[in-house]
Design a protein that fits this description.
Elements lengths: L9 H8 L6 H5 L7 H8 L25 H7 L11 E3 L13 E2 L7 H17 L10 E8 L2 E9 L2 H17 L2 E5 L5 E8 L8 E13 L2 E14 L2 E9 L5 H19 L13
Antiparallel strand pairs: 1-3, 2-5, 3-4, 4-9, 5-6, 6-7, 7-8, 8-9
Length: 281
C-alpha cells in the first residue's frame, strides 16, 4: 500500500461556540454586547430586533473552521482510536506498493482513452497517496500495521470545488473501471477490479471503494486487497486506506472513518480530540 505525510484559532473557536461566524465589522458594531434596554426587553419577553438573525449555539448551519498544520496533525488517528491490535509506525510516508504500478491497457475499454485515463489516475493516486488530488492546504499522514496489513490515513485541506469533483470522480470508478488490466515495466500483467464500498454516515460528503489487484510477487501469485474511504468536512478531508495481501480491512477502515471524522470535526471546531475515545464499538 502507498502513502505520504500535518491549532485552532481561538477567535474562530469562540465564534463557533457562539453559534455564528461573525465578521470583524459586526463585532466592532457592538454585536457582542447587550445594553440595559436590551436586557430589560428580554426579561419582559420581548425579543431584540436582531434575535431572529442569530444562529443558535451548535447549529448545523455553522461552518467548520480552516485547517492548520497543527490541526491536521492533531486530527490524525492514534492507536487508541483503533481496535484489533494496530501498531502505529513512523515511516508511513515511505510506503509504496509495487503492485499498484502499471500502465493501463487502453484496448480493454469501449471508450478507450477517457476510461483508461480514469483507471490510470486511480492506480497512480493509490500509489502516490493523492487520490483526492494534491492538497491546497496543510496535510498530515499516519500509518498503522497489523501483520501483513496496513492502514493509512491522510488529513488535508483542499479547494472545495476540486474536492467535490474528486469525490464525484471516485463515485464513477466502479462503473468506469470495474475490471481492467495493467502492465508493469517488466511486462507482468495485473488484473484490477473496482467495486463500491460502504462508508459510515460521517462528515459532509463521502465515497468508498474496494479495489483488488491480482498479480505476482517473487514469482508467486498474490492479491492485494484495499478498502478506501474519503470523507469531506468543510474544505478539509480525510482519506483512509486499509488492506494488504492478507485481505480486506473493511471493519477497521469504517472504525477509522468514524474516529477520524470525529477528530477532524473537533479540531475544525476549535477543540482538542480526546486521547481516550469513548465510542469504540
Amino acid at each position: 500500500m502507498s502513502s505520504r505525510p500535518s491549532h485552532p484559532v481561538r477567535l474562530l473557536a469562540s465564534a463557533l461556540a457562539a453559534g455564528a461566524l461573525l465578521t470583524t465589522a459586526a463585532c466592532s458594531d457592538g454585536a457582542g454586547s447587550e445594553n440595559a434596554s436590551d436586557t430589560a426587553a428580554e426579561q419582559a419577553g420581548v425579543a431584540r430586533p436582531d434575535a431572529a438573525k442569530q444562529t443558535p449555539t451548535g447549529s448545523p448551519s455553522a461552518s467548520p473552521g480552516t485547517l492548520t498544520e497543527a490541526g491536521a496533525k492533531a486530527a490524525l488517528l492514534t492507536e487508541a482510536d483503533l481496535e484489533g491490535g494496530w501498531n502505529q509506525v513512523q515511516d508511513a510516508d515511505k510506503w509504496r506498493d509495487r503492485l499498484l504500478v502499471g500502465e493501463v491497457d487502453v484496448s480493454g475499454f469501449l471508450t478507450a482513452k477517457a476510461d483508461a485515463a480514469d483507471c490510470q489516475q486511480l492506480l497512480d493516486g493509490l500509489y502516490r497517496d493523492n487520490l483526492l488530488g494534491e492538497p491546497s492546504g496543510p496535510s498530515a499522514l499516519t500509518g498503522f500495521e497489523q501483520g501483513d496489513s496496513r492502514l493509512l490515513e491522510q488529513v488535508a485541506g483542499y479547494d472545495r470545488a476540486g474536492l467535490d469533483d474528486r469525490l464525484k470522480w471516485m463515485a464513477s470508478l466502479p462503473q468506469t473501471c470495474d475490471e481492467f488490466t495493467a502492465t508493469d515495466s517488466d511486462g507482468a500483467e495485473r488484473t484490477v477490479q473496482v467495486t463500491e464500498a460502504s462508508v459510515p454516515d460521517a462528515g459532509d460528503a463521502r465515497e468508498g471503494l474496494h479495489v483488488t489487484v491480482q498479480g505476482t510477487a517473487d514469482a508467486t501469485p498474490v492479491t492485494l486487497t484495499l478498502d478506501i474511504a474519503a470523507v469531506r468536512v468543510g474544505t478539509s478531508a480525510l482519506t483512509v486506506t486499509g488492506g494488504g495481501l492478507d485481505g480486506a480491512q473493511a471493519s477497521s477502515v469504517e472504525q477509522a472513518v468514524r474516529q477520524g471524522t470525529q477528530r477532524l470535526t473537533t479540531v475544525l471546531d476549535g477543540g482538542t480530540p480526546s486521547p481516550q475515545p469513548t465510542n469504540l464499538d
